[in-house]
Amino acid sequence: MVTQESKASATDSVGLVTPQLFHFDEPLLLRSGKSLPAYDLMVETYGELNAARSNAILICHALSGDHHAAGYHSDSDRKPGWWDTAIGPGKAIDTNKFYVVALNNLGGCAGSTGPTSINPETGKPYGPDFPVVTVRDWVKSQKRLMSRLGIEKWAAVVGGSLGGMQVQRWAISYPECVANAVCIASAPKLSAQNIAFNEVARYSITSDPNFHNGRYLEHDTYPKQGLMLARMVGHITYLSDSAMRAKFGNASSQLESTTRGNLGRDLRSGNLSFGLNIDFEVESYLHYQGERFSSNFDANSYLLMTKALDYFDPSVDYGNDLSKAFESSDCRFFLVSFSTDWRFPPERSRELVETLLKAGREVSYLEVDADQGHDAFLMPIPRYINALRGFLDNAYEELCHAS
Amino acid sequence: MVTQESKASATDSVGLVTPQLFHFDEPLLLRSGKSLPAYDLMVETYGELNAARSNAILICHALSGDHHAAGYHSDSDRKPGWWDTAIGPGKAIDTNKFYVVALNNLGGCAGSTGPTSINPETGKPYGPDFPVVTVRDWVKSQKRLMSRLGIEKWAAVVGGSLGGMQVQRWAISYPECVANAVCIASAPKLSAQNIAFNEVARYSITSDPNFHNGRYLEHDTYPKQGLMLARMVGHITYLSDSAMRAKFGNASSQLESTTRGNLGRDLRSGNLSFGLNIDFEVESYLHYQGERFSSNFDANSYLLMTKALDYFDPSVDYGNDLSKAFESSDCRFFLVSFSTDWRFPPERSRELVETLLKAGREVSYLEVDADQGHDAFLMPIPRYINALRGFLDNAYEELCHAS
């Protein structure tokens, strides 16, 4: 039996980690025109910064991620950080080679300044008064963190989904600060369908009577049902149809082999209820996911994250020509997409590849056959993980030669 | 200017129509084991039944449809019935040739017995006590309507989506009563992803505090927000990504021509709000659709319709071998699917085609290239409408020769 303690002490785990809070006093002017007078960023680091300060990798998180990307906070932790499959000694993002930095973004709810923080102007939680933050704002705040850590150039900036948007923004806004950009399961901007799903999530939250126009903390409550619904919708879009068929079709797969394939129709109790109860395993799973998420995430943060997704479109400052945005970028790009990801399908990554080539950039691109949909970017899929390792190993060799 | 009156009197319109209520006194034993002691069906008919009573076509409606499939109820009607593009004099379902019968299904909310009807046992609306009805139950009730109309065999049973499931059930349960089966944009059963979206819709409704366990009418209220959300999610799945890009990307299509294609990111006001307001046209459209629908549809009916969708799987009584279910069918089948329909994609229709061929059935199948997603089945797409016309014209000639 593998105990928790042995998990944290496994040779490929970063082990027990302690988040650090960094305070920034200089006001941060945001894209909206508003300003944060001061803010905190919650940060974790894994591995050692080398003497040349050249081996740092920044990890940018997606919608519901945070600074806890790898390892364990205590021996009793059930689960490691959200990207422990990729980060650790000897792993693809190898902490024997790299100094890895992960942070909770502004507006989040895991320790960095966000809607649950106290607004110095009122003495109450910001709540809905926390300003809308954009990917550009996040990258600006990450740049200050970089300076604080004494790093002048990231060996790589790495992120999936919304994290991949931050990677793009780094390459555009601070070309001198990025040696390699790894953008996974992402897109140069959302489509109408993406925005539509985000709006359903937002409306789920804001129409919950416990939302109280975002001031639910002051009412000592929170919009749990709305957050559950938002996550249930989201979760469907993270999984592929085929992943759901496989996940919820084990019991019937033998029976169904006479027709074409398994459709994921396993029943929870073996019989239909002929009532409005939950009948199918997939329904039960969605409720479980919604329940778990809504107990741990701040609703105002969720709203902010979805707006950052919707707003991201770096081409708007370049006459809607994205290739112009990347013209002054000076890093190698590595892009990955997954065949069954219908939230950010391979086509969106190919758009970005073409745009980068048009801008004269160096870009490698891998399209991975994977059943897991958008969620594949978090999975230990060998072809994907090995390619990521290969790209970063090259980056490491280059920086060793440079020093 | 085309006035309403001239619309109803257009030569290809069935014109002004009056629904008829048919009362059935014989109890209907349902699939669940429960029974409806008596029930009403709201029906519209277009065209004339011939002397041989051989030219009748049954139209089966989808989730939110009803008996009002064509024509106008009054000169002031803004819109005709839901399938007016296909039904009328000289149209694909030609009322000069056929006697067309459309009804509101049991459990619906447009006049047939359903949750808003009075439960004779309590003197109050059925509400949540209305029994769960299945596609099989609907077809059983439609069979009684058929007898009442003095029809022994339908020239054709026609339906799209959930309507197509009723078409399949007719061919299985009453093979002697169907000459032709037209099954459009449908599937032999839902996949886990389909069920998941339905469960999100149901949870939206049931978690609305105005739902009151389904007894909202007794509380003089209704779960409007929940129904709105359910419809917003549904609407995204009826449209394709490409249809949404085209629909919400007009203003920017010129600007975006420098990158690849239009993503449907038109802004409502031209500027981002940097708040939690509605920014994009697609959001505004979704709210409009949700608002309109939630003002006209009963929440308990919506729940019942989604359960009927989830439960449909005629193979379960045939050892999960659907081809066995169709072995005694005795009609010609015509199936249509649409390239961008991701709710019931072409693959699901191809499964059905293969199953029908395995069962030794005669089947024609058309896969239509169309941008409109699942909604395409309601659209006047020439290739689709002409094929439907061709199939039914052949059916008509056959019945003329037979008589």
What does this structure look like?
Two copies of one chain form a homodimer. Chain A is built from twelve helices and twelve strands. Chain A has 403 residues and is of the alpha/beta class. In chain A, the strands form three sheets. An eight-stranded mixed sheet of chain A has the order 1-4-8-5-9-10-11-12, with helices on both faces. In chain A, helix 2 crosses helix 3 (162-173). Chains A and B meet through helix 4, helix 5, helix 6, helix 8 and helix 9 of A and helix 4, helix 5, helix 6, helix 7 and helix 8 of B.
- How many individual helices of chain A? 12
Average pLDDT confidence of chain A is: 94
Please name the CATH topology of the largest domain in chain A: Rossmann fold
Supply the CATH superfamily name of the largest domain in chain A.
Alpha/Beta hydrolase fold, catalytic domain
Largest sheet of chain A: 8 strands, mixed
The number of domains of chain A: 2
Shape of chain A: globular
| E-strand count of chain A | 12
Quick structural gist:
Two copies of one chain form a homodimer. Chain A is α/β, with parallel strands linked by helices.
Explain the layout of strands and helices.
The structure is a homodimer of 403-residue chains.
Chain A: H1 4-8, E1 20-24, E2 28-29, E3 35-36, E4 39-46, E5 56-60, E6 87-88, E7 93-94, E8 99-103, H2 135-148, E9 156-160, H3 162-173, E10 180-184, H4 192-206, H5 224-238, H6 241-247, H7 253-256, H8 281-294, H9 299-311, H10 322-325, E11 332-338, H11 346-358, E12 362-368, H12 382-402
Parallel strand pairs in A: 5-8, 5-9, 6-7, 9-10, 10-11, 11-12
Antiparallel strand pairs in A: 1-4, 2-3, 4-8
